[in-house]
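Subject: for your reference before the review

Hello V.,

The reviewers asked for a structural picture of the protein, and I figured it would be easier to keep everything in one thread rather than splitting it across files. Below is the amino acid sequence we used in the manuscript, unchanged from the supplementary table.
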Amino acid sequence: MATLLMVGDDNDLSVEAERFASRLGLAVLRCPDAAAAATLLHRQVEVVVVDGGDGESHSALPQLLQACQSRGLPLLHVGAPDALPGEKDLPTDLFDVLPPPLAPRLLERRLALLLEVRRLRRELDARALEVEVLQAELAEFSSLDHDTGLFSQRYFIEDLAKEWRQAGRNSTPLSLLLLEIDGYASFLRQHGREEAVSSLCLVARALYQSLMRPSDLLARFGERGFAILLPETDGDGAELVATRLRHAVASLATGEDWVLHEGVSLSIGCAWHLPGEGDADGSDGEALLDVAGEALARAAAAGGGRTVLLAVEGDAGHPKDDAPDS
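And here is what came back from the structure prediction:
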């Protein structure tokens, strides 16, 4: 139960404080001195009232004030102004002084104001927490593609920069795949956006289910394509993954969920790089993305349904004519 902590002896102040607490439905907890009161703040204390008439019994009042401040508890000191060193530096929304003689109506007013400030501070803290949660949800939402539920192109670019630097620090290979659905533009014209996007989602699911490692990142890339980042994967490994992905997507044409009732194939551009000294600094992986784009263009120009692999440095590219059988 919410509690008013009364610090001091039984007197007119304690009587008036109890009356106030009773009207607000607050319990009253009495304590003879400030040192003992500081140990009781773990209870459901909403406000602290200190009778400042006895200086000796309240020699620990500065410690009580500090404890209240750290917990956001308001404290009303009923006593002479400037009785405590540094009173003027205390936050006015948590600390107030009521000089003698005791005026019951003024006491009630001061306590009511302190409790209202505490309520508002709690609401403000709760709203701040809500804002943090909403900001986190917004950040997560902005990192996802609305059609497929995959990571967005923006998120992929950010992750590419991180993985590029990580590969440079560890001197490990990094591969990037750009994938496009062959003929997706004609799909869109013939069947409309709704069915075309449904097919895109089926392709996305097939790709996702074909990736073996949690570290492999699949994202929507452009209107009709995808991008995959393969950490610690060289060119040979990237080709194996590309072949597995093309077979998985080709098998969709025989499934009951495939809405277009047509075959589907992928053009895949693979780029890979084995970082050397200095690759961890001053680059964000754009070179890898550019080379993968060039490889994808070659695969599409060669008729689609194939993979082209290029290395970032040197001429290691060659088309892979291992399209799935129709």
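For the response letter, the relevant points are probably these. The chain is about 45% helix and 20% strand. The chain has two domains: 3-136, 153-320.

Happy to draft the paragraph if you're swamped.

O.
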